[in-house]
Amino acid sequence: xxxxxxxxxxxxxxxxxxxxxxxxxxxxxxxxxxxxxxxxxxxxxxxxxxxxxxxxxxxxxxxxxxxxxxxxxxxxxxxxxxxxxxxxxxxxxxxxxxxxxxxxxxxxxxxxxxxxxxxxxxxxxxxxxxxxxxxxxxxxxxxxxxxxxxxxxxxxxxxxxxxxxxxxxxxxxxxxxxxxxxxxxxxxxxxxxxxxxxxxxxxxxxxxxxxxxxxxxxxxxxxxxxxxxxxxxxxxxxxxxxxxxxxxxxxxxxxxxxxxxxxxxxxxxxxxxxxxxxxxxxxxxxxxxxxxxxxxxxxxxxxxxxxxxxxxxxxxxxxxxxxxx
Length: 325
Fold this sequence. Notes:
The protein is an alpha/beta fold. The protein has helices spanning 8-33, 57-68, 80-94, 109-122, 150-172, 203-224, 252-258, 263-266, 268-275, 302-315, and strands at 48-52, 72-77, 99-103, 128-131, 176-181, 230-236, 285-288, 291-292.
């Protein structure tokens, strides 16, 4: 029998490959172990839900589930044609004919105001407002029509302005809920109060920053709405295979494809916070994988959150005639 010596290079390659494979397996097991599910069959008949970004991913699965539960749904969509296609498909699938699509581009303050005006004219109540829409850019720096960095404009300032413009209707609808979709990525980012329009910052990092901004906004909002009957609930969908990760390079794309949650799994916590009667009266809380989770202390700084709120009022150009919170 003839033996062939193994080179140092082969040993090194084999060792590195083994470490990578073992690491990927461990990541897979950990990610799959965090998947939470909402099993309740509670209905939403007679409830009106307004959701942004319901055309695809987590938002689409949220719309589909709430439609099955009998909710009347207003889909706020930037791409109105796609919104109509999604609406028609879900109406056919669920038999729920109470799904409406309205145009909304959260990055444009003019569009937000026009959308809010339309809602105030046509709607008597909103039982659940879900701030689901968001954007993330890998590298391309882009400004909104208002001169605001695009990620910030869409993920924070748009929802901030919309909430203010609809607040009187929400108060009339009390008890009701505002659900803000954030992310566990808030843990690795910081909102720089000295630069709240960071046009020169790496865009993908700003996605993480705006997830921190979502929580700061939500906590201050809950504080200001105490005793109004409006609950504010913060949601981390978890690591979910959505369009945000479609350009992830190999081998990380394998983790995204095979280990991350699919959109339906990612929507479970949003659905729970919109539906569960167990959360009646609960506000200012953060949920991940269908259970409450503690927030890091740095994001609960009330002084910083108040300053951020006041600066956001300026960035959104709120007028004296606008409703204030």
